[in-house]
Amino acid sequence: MKNNQAPFATEVTLLTQRRIRQTIREPQWIVSGLATPILYLVLFAPLLKDIPSSLFGGLPMVQMFLPGMLVLFAFGSGTGIGWTVIAELDSGVIERFRVTPVRRVSLLLGSVLRDGLFFLVCAVLVCAVAVPFGFAIHPLGLILALLLLAVLTGAVSATSAALGLIMKNVGGLAAVITSAQLPLTLLAGALLPISMGPAWLRALAHIDPFYYGVEAARDLASGQILTGSVGLGFMVILALFALALTWAARVFRKAVS
User: Fold this and answer.
1) Which string of DSSP letters, residue by residue, matches 169-219?
2) CA distance 47 to 4
3) Torsion (CA) 83, 85, 88, 92 in degrees, nearest 10
4) What is the span of the domain harbouring residue 26?
5) I need a labelling partner for 245 at 20 to 30 A (CA). Which of 54, 112, 166, 218 fits?
6) pLDDT digits 0-9 by tens, 163-210
7) What would the mean pLDDT of 84-96 be, rounded to a whole number?
8) Measuring CA to CA, which residue among 254, 240, 255 is closest to residue 112?
9) Alpha-carbon span 240 to 229, nearest angstrom
10) d(CA 186, CA 195)
11) Which residues neighbour 39 within 8 Å (Cβ) at sequence distance 6 or greater?
């Protein structure tokens, strides 16, 4: 059977293209995904304009707010694959993949890469929309921030796909994701800097990997590249991605065997 396998890169490319075509065939999800961060920017960001910038480390409001909002977007961009996996289980698509020589990790990576690409395209558009609101683009820093958050999207995507295979139930998956989203993103300081909170909350934030992504993204979006927060952010998010991908790959091998 191994002799019939396509090269690994070819498998991943074809399965990523399959996921991209699925996304294109359902443009309402693209519009919905893009509308959410723009609505946050238009409707929530103005509420922060009277907060002293000293609370943001001297950063302009939108320079602080947009990276945190993109972390929220990264989380949302990665969660949808769990529902798709459950739908494919119910419709027999996963069952058909069981009798093919395709590598199980390729099935996972196709979804992860699609979600990362979807995040990147939409995030670039959101950053462009934010410019009239005062968002200053620092090209290298912004590129690194978006790449970091695309990796975060990948970690969420791998986890969501694996949970879909394990739970096999839309209601159960929704409960898990909804329960995790609020503490992970609020504790990370995605909407407001965690430095504004009490000491116990600031201490608790350090167990949340999303916190390091938010801090690194804010530094990078402001043009600060060689900072401790950036280095730590990349280490934590890359480690999170590796752990999520390793665990999800094992789940896929067991479920699609």
Assistant:
1) -HHHHHHHHHHHHHHHHHHTTSSS-GGGS-HHHHHHHTT-HHHHHHHHHHH
2) 59
3) -130
4) 2-255
5) 218
6) 999 998 888 999 999 999 989 998 998 887 888 788 999 899 999 999
7) 86
8) 240
9) 16
10) 12
11) none
Identify whether the C-beta of residue 219 lies closer than 8 Å to the C-beta of residue 230.
yes
Count of structural domains, the chain: 1
Q: Where would I find the H helices in the chain?
A: 8-25, 27-39, 61-79, 81-91, 93-97, 104-130, 139-167, 170-187, 199-205, 209-221, 228-255
Nearest to 237 by CA among 78, 62, 92: 78
Which residues lie closer than 8 Å to 257 by C-beta, 6 or more apart? 98, 104
Cβ atoms of 193 and 64 closer than 8 Å: yes
Global pTM reads 0.91
Question: In angstroms, rounded to a whole number, what is the distance separating the alpha carbons of residues 135 and 127?
Answer: 8
Q: What is the pLDDT of residue 1?
A: 43
> How many angstroms separate the Cα of 104 from the Cα of each of 1, 12, 28, 47, 162?
14, 10, 29, 47, 12
- Chain Cα centroid distance, residue 150: 6
Residue matched to tokens 């530094």: 219
Task: Quick: pLDDT tens for 33-45.
Answer: 778 888 888 887 7
Q: Write out the two tokens for 18.
A: 């399959």
pLDDT classification of 70: cutoffs 50, 70, 90: very high
Token couple for 48: 């922060």
SS3 at position 168: coil
